């Protein structure tokens, strides 16, 4: 998926999960932040959510994670979405964070969240990653 489509997919997911999207980075340099979201529509309540989105198969290492953490202030929440996943060192560094809150989302967790929020996604978001239900007969007890 092209990088900016991936960004829009994550923004649509956050919106479906009840967050308010303030900004999605346009093409070009983004300063390490792809999306800014809030828990309230005016963006006046903490925390502010800063999101970095990476598609592709490359795993995010601790140096790349630290570059993102440099733009996450102490009152913010950092959300790093990487389809390629994270190295063990990056996962450990995220768990050990004390001054900044950071959540790592790999492809498996992204799909879980997508399935969970699918009914609340707008039509354009659904078209980016469409799902079809599969039905099974359940045996009677």
In short:
The chain is an alpha/beta fold and 141 residues long.
Largest sheet: 5 strands, mixed
Order of helices and strands: HEEEHEHEHH
Using the coordinates above, name the CATH class: Alpha Beta
Strands, count: 5
Q: What Rg do the Cα atoms give?
A: 16 Å
N/C terminus separation: 44 Å
* Number of domain units: 1
Explain what you see.
With 141 residues, the chain is α/β, with parallel strands linked by helices. It has one domain: Trna Endonuclease, Chain: A, domain 1, CATH 3.40.1350. It is 33% helix and 20% strand. Strands 1-2-3-4-5 form a 5-stranded mixed β-sheet, sandwiched between helices. Strand 3, helix 2 and strand 4 form a beta-alpha-beta unit. The longest helix has 14 residues. The chain is globular and about 55 Å long. The chain starts with a helix and ends in a 13-residue tail after the last helix.
Write a concise keyword list for the protein shown above.
5 strands; 141 residues; Trna Endonuclease, Chain: A, domain 1; 33% helix
Topology:
Elements: H1 3-16, E1 20-24, E2 35-38, E3 48-54, H2 62-69, E4 76-82, H3 88-95, E5 101-105, H4 107-117, H5 123-128
Parallel strand pairs: 3-4, 4-5
Antiparallel strand pairs: 1-2, 2-3
């Amino acid at each position: 998926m092209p990088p900016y489509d991936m960004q829009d997919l994550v923004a649509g997911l956050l919106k479906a999960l009840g967050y308010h999207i303030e900004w999605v980075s346009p093409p070009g340099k983004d300063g390490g932040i792809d999306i800014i979201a809030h828990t309230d529509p005016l963006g006046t309540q903490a925390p502010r959510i800063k999101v970095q989105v990476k598609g592709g198969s490359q795993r995010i290492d601790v140096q790349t994670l630290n570059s993102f953490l440099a733009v996450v202030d102490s009152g913010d929440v950092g959300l790093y979405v990487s389809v390629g996943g994270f190295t063990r060192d990056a996962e450990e560094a995220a768990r050990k964070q004390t001054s900044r809150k950071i959540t790592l989302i790999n492809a498996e967790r992204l799909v879980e969240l997508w399935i969970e929020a699918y009914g609340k996604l707008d039509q354009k978001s659904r078209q980016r990653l469409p799902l079809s239900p599969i039905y099974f007969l359940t045996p009677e007890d």
